[in-house]
Design goal:
The chain has two domains: about 110 residues, HAD superfamily/HAD-like (Rossmann fold); about 100 residues, HAD superfamily/HAD-like (Rossmann fold, 3-Layer(aba) Sandwich). It is built from nine helices and 14 strands. Helix 5 crosses helix 6. The radius of gyration is 18 Å and the shape is elongated. It starts with 9 loop residues before the first strand and ends with a helix.
Amino acid sequence: MNKIPKDISLFAFDLDGTLYFGESLIEGAIDLISFIQKNYNVVFFTNNSTKTRKEIHSKLIHLGFKCNVNEVFTSSYVAGKYLSEAGIDNVYVIGSEGLRSEILNNGIRIIDNSMAENLIVGLDLNFSYNKIETAMTVIMKNGKFIVCNEDKFFPVEKNKFMPACGAMVGAITATSNKKPDFVVGKPNTYILSKIEKAYGIKHHEILVVGDSYESDIMMAKNNNSKAILVNSNKNVVDGNVFVMDNPNKILRYLKKY
């Protein structure tokens, strides 16, 4: 991909590791977003299941970005949408208050014990042996096993990472001997399908920008969308993927073309 295709109408930006690390803004991120917003729609997506979309929107505003809450797509937000669309009710939730809030906002009943009929798993900082036991019981009753993502880790600052939702999913999968029935977050394309529906666009009109080839870029590839990988790794050879070192370099490129 030598230049931005003419049919692109929307840029979809990953957050952690692309625009910020934890609470620290990445240099050039605000200028890049501001420039793109002059000519394209811009949305923000994240596999973060611990916060509601409103909380992530508030963080973006606090960091200095200009956007509205409808431009934010979190795995917690789309998880609630998926449960509603799939008719999955009566769920046991392993995850944060943010995830629980998004589920309840979609009219889904939460049951906090093994009487639940289905299971949804997000990042849970209070994950425990008892939660594994309850999850196993629900799954062994043939309940649906839905997860926000299977990420192994997430960045909290440059070169520092923390265990992610995949740690919870892995423990439950090993115990129940059952893989998830559906993964809401990237590299699955469900988040992009929600973006496409919200903006009335097709897959070829989206350009995904992210720092993880295995997650962000694979989501774009799975969706037949174009992508920019924000990474210093020059070994990626893919006609649909641009590799840029940082937001400042992307901005200089866009201004040039």
